[in-house]
């Protein structure tokens, strides 16, 4: 069954440059299917929204990144650290300050004591960093938001609640004494270091944060406000691992599963195996997600690169999700100095959007080939970010 699909995809990919679309779904809901006005015939083609590219608008239109932006403190040293990986980190969410529009915050998953990505459980905690250099950074550490073990952080402003909502996995544990990782397969470890999703809230991005409480016994939180953009309702949508979708009347309420299992095979080692969804609703009201696609682990004997990004889309939150098993972005990053680097890992993709929901920046956790340290990369998308930065005076 799958084989047939891949064959079909190969054919589609081959035909793609001349393939006409029928509906906006053929444009990944990232564009409009309409007549090619430069020709007198009646072929229809995808007109992609800013930030998306490709014949089916299924690929992020990434622009070159600038070295030493984002949150790269892998060269930091502290004599008290057990490890040599500096302040390694693994992705985060950019938040524009609500009062000081030229100030950007990054809520980031950081590893303590100089430990690298391998020691993520239990050393991960959530930190807040700031940039006065614009949304690309560089961001500097300003505050610990949590202690260990908290990971997979995401944060949203809920206008209806007048609060920032902070989602993460983990539990509060004693400060780790080594960088040694705790395997997830040990049931005792699972109880002490659960990957369950918890939520906290604060009136300001600087805190104080309410105690976390478990929202869903699952992992990989991808929250989005379900309410109207005018902020009249507090309803929350939460996608988790394997694309299970939950909703709750408000952040502190009970989450219930909505919809059915998605149509694609979510089983580990299947070609449509993904993790860590990132969910959003676009300007037309359609739903989208990016996720870490693990195809190279399946097809290239455990390799984690370069095909790392998947895009899913749906007209409704509860069902009808489509996943064209193809690359939405890769682990190869072009830099403004003209060089390109293919990272060993690139995960935890999150988008920072402009007011009209145009994607402006992609934030991801990256690890160079041969490295054990990791950092948080911010890469501009398309062209609109230039205008966004210029309007802010950067
Ligand atoms: C494309 O143009 C033809 C002829 O003008 C028209 O019949 C058709 O509805 C158009 N299709 C779309 C999707 O705009
Ligand atoms: C639109 O039509 C023109 C003229 O036939 C053609 O050159 C161009 O490639 C078409 N655009 C796309 C994206 O197919
Ligand atoms: C990140 O930091 C390391 C030093 O720890 C450096 O080698 C690397 O070039 C930096 N990468 C980027 C993209 O800033
Ligand atoms: C890390 O590298 C950056 C960029 O080269 C440099 O500005 C900074 O001083 C370095 N920090 C340490 C602790 O070596
Ligand atoms: C590294 O992280 C620690 C918090 O654990 C912080 O005190 C320190 O300022 C950070 N340094 C840099 C360069 O990010
Ligand atoms: C930040 O939290 C980490 C993890 O709990 C801890 O190791 C570090 O000492 C803290 N740093 C500061 C400055 O509070
Ligand atoms: C998580 O599982 C525990 C133990 O089975 C249960 O007591 C708790 O109610 C569950 N929490 C949620 C939010 O489902
Ligand atoms: C985490 O979820 C598991 C079920 O998946 C449950 O057994 C456990 O009690 C939960 N832990 C906490 C702290 O809620
Ligand atoms: C899903 O993928 C797994 C792993 O490749 C495979 O064993 C299983 O047969 C697949 N299931 C379906 C329904 O295709």
TrEMBL record:
Q: Which Gene3D superfamilies match?
A: Laminin
Q: Where is the signal peptide?
A: 1-20
Keywords tagged on the record: Disulfide bond, EGF-like domain, Signal
Using the record's annotation, list all stretches that form the EGF-like domain: 17-58
InterPro entries according to UniProt: EGF (IPR000742)
Q: Which top-rank group of organisms is this from?
A: Eukaryota
Asked if the record carries the keyword Disulfide bond, the reply is yes
Keyword Zinc appears in the UniProt entry: no
Q: Which residue pairs form cystines in this protein? A: 48-57
SUPFAM superfamilies attached to this UniProt entry: EGF/Laminin (SSF57196)
**What is the protein name given in its UniProt record?**
EGF-like domain-containing protein
């Amino acid at each position: 069954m799958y084989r047939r699909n891949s064959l079909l995809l190969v054919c589609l990919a081959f035909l793609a440059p001349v393939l006409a679309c029928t509906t906006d779904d053929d444009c990944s809901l990232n564009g409009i299917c309409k007549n090619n006005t430069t020709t007198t015939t009646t072929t229809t083609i995808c007109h992609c929204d800013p930030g998306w590219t490709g014949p089916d608008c299924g690929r992020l239109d990434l622009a070159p990144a600038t070295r030493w932006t984002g949150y790269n403190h892998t060269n930091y040293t502290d004599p008290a650290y057990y490890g040599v990986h500096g302040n390694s980190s693994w992705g985060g969410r950019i938040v524009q300050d609500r009062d000081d529009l030229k100030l950007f915050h990054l809520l980031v998953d950081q590893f303590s004591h100089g430990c690298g990505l391998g020691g993520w459980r239990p050393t991960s905690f959530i930190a807040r960093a700031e940039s006065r250099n614009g949304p690309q950074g560089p961001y500097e550490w300003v505050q610990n938001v949590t202690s260990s073990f908290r990971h997979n952080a995401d944060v949203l402003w809920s206008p209806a609640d007048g609060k920032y909502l902070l989602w993460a996995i983990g539990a509060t544990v004693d400060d780790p004494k080594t960088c040694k990782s705790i395997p997830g397969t040990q049931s005792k470890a699972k109880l002490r270091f659960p990957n369950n999703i918890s939520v906290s809230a604060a009136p300001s991005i600087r805190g104080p944060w309410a105690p976390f409480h478990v929202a869903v016994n699952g992992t990989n939180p991808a929250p989005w406000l379900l309410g109207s953009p005018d902020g009249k309702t507090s309803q929350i949508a939460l996608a988790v691992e394997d694309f299970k979708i939950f909703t709750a009347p408000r952040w502190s309420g009970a989450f219930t599963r909505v919809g059915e299992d998605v149509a694609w095979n979510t089983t580990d080692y299947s070609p449509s195996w993904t993790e860590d969804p990132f969910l959003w609703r676009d300007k037309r009201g359609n739903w989208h997600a990016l996720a870490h696609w693990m195809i190279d682990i399946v097809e290239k004997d455990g390799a984690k690169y370069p095909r790392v990004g998947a895009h899913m889309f749906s007209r409704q939150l509860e069902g009808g999700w489509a996943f064209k098993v193809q690359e939405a972005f890769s682990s190869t990053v072009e830099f403004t100095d003209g060089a390109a680097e293919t990272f060993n890992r690139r995960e935890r993709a999150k988008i920072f959007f402009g007011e009209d929901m145009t994607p402006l920046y992609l934030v991801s956790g990256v690890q160079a080939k041969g490295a054990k340290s990791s950092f948080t990369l911010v890469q501009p998308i398309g062209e609109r970010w230039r205008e966004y930065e210029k309007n802010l005076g950067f």
